[in-house]
Write a structure and sequence with these properties.
Blueprint: H1 2-14, H2 29-64, H3 76-90, H4 96-120, H5 128-150, H6 154-161, H7 176-188, H8 190-196, H9 200-205, H10 210-231, H11 238-250, H12 254-278, H13 287-310
Length: 311
């Protein structure tokens, strides 16, 4: 049933767009060109982005022991954008691999700074860390915007800060498959990451190399975030909303929850992308706007619910 829903949304996504495509004309050469050059790449990009960001959010929440953080609210995505800006300003002739390396380095450095701040924040207030993350991410985003303004690159950075799949074509999304591979590698580390989520002392007691495992996991998260920012731009709140929904049913065991987190991320983002294409058809609304409205509502609900319980 779960895979049937994902398959149904996948097929629906293939047949929505300005170019007419239906079962009746699917064998036409022009229709096949649209299908393989535009629709399949776009739909795969949506699935891989939803999966990568949801898994990245789950792993990040386990590492910092807080359910209210994710890459776009902790400065990771903004760090990747700053890394890309550096390549455009100082190394514009670098190939894509070089740009991707600096974007990953920017995301990882930003995340390590956030982890350093997280260690200094009192653990008794779970809302303080995400609020600090939001301020930190906003400051990095403002810095990137200022640099882009001074360098006349505002249009470029606007693309990175606004997730949109309308420009995805064959040859422009394949890097996202690396994010899918990173998700599989994290699944292989699922049992160890579950122990990491219990804290440094418990991990050391059980013989788990806590710091090395945290660095490996954060490197995977930085890789997935940078790939998404490079390919389609930021899509906020997936890493926050999806893990919190899934963990209500599966608990904190990553081996059990990670496949459902990946599936839910893909399904929700596919649904929002289809919605983004039909709201103002034949025009499109950026999927980051659609998911941002949904994610903001869920984020506020998650923030306010414990406060009501304490009242």
């Amino acid at each position: 049933m779960a895979w049937a829903l994902l398959l149904a949304l996948f097929v629906l996504s293939l047949f929505i767009g300005v170019s007419q495509l239906s079962w009746a004309n699917i064998s036409d050469p022009d229709a096949l060109t649209v299908l393989f050059v535009s629709r399949f790449p776009r739909t795969f990009a949506v699935v891989l982005t939803g999966t990568s960001m949801a898994v990245a959010g789950l792993v990040m929440q386990m590492v910092v022991h807080n359910r209210f953080v994710e890459p776009s609210t902790a400065g990771t995505a903004q760090g990747a954008a700053l890394g890309l800006l550096v390549t455009l300003l100082f190394f514009p002739a670098w190939p894509l691999l070089g740009k991707m390396t600096l974007a990953i380095a920017g995301a990882l450095l930003s995340m390590l700074l956030f982890l350093a701040m997280a260690r200094r924040i009192p653990p008794h207030d779970p809302l303080l860390l995400p609020l600090v993350g939001l301020i930190y991410g906003s400051a990095l985003g403002a810095l990137a915007t200022f640099i882009a303004y001074e360098a006349d690159l505002l249009q470029v950075i606007e693309i990175w800060f606004s997730g949109d799949f309308s420009a995805v074509l064959k040859g422009r999304y394949e890097l996202l498959w690396l994010g899918g591979i990173a998700s599989l590698l994290l699944y292989l580390l699922a049992d160890r990451l579950t122990i990491v989520g219990m804290g440094e002392q418990m991990s050391q007691t059980l013989g788990i190399p806590y710091r090395r495992l945290v660095l490996a996991a954060m490197s995977m998260v930085a890789l997935m975030t940078a790939l998404v920012v490079i390919s389609v731009g930021m899509v906020p709140f997936i890493g926050l909303v999806v893990p919190n929904i899934v963990r209500r049913f599966t608990g904190d065991n990553i081996r059990r929850s990670l496949p459902w987190v990946a599936w839910t991320g893909a399904v929700l983002l596919l649904f929002c992308d289809v919605l983004a294409r039909i709201i103002r058809f034949p025009y499109e609304v950026p999927v980051s706007v659609v998911f941002g409205v949904f994610g903001t509502a869920v984020f506020l609900y998650l923030l306010l619910k414990p406060m009501r319980g304490q009242a």
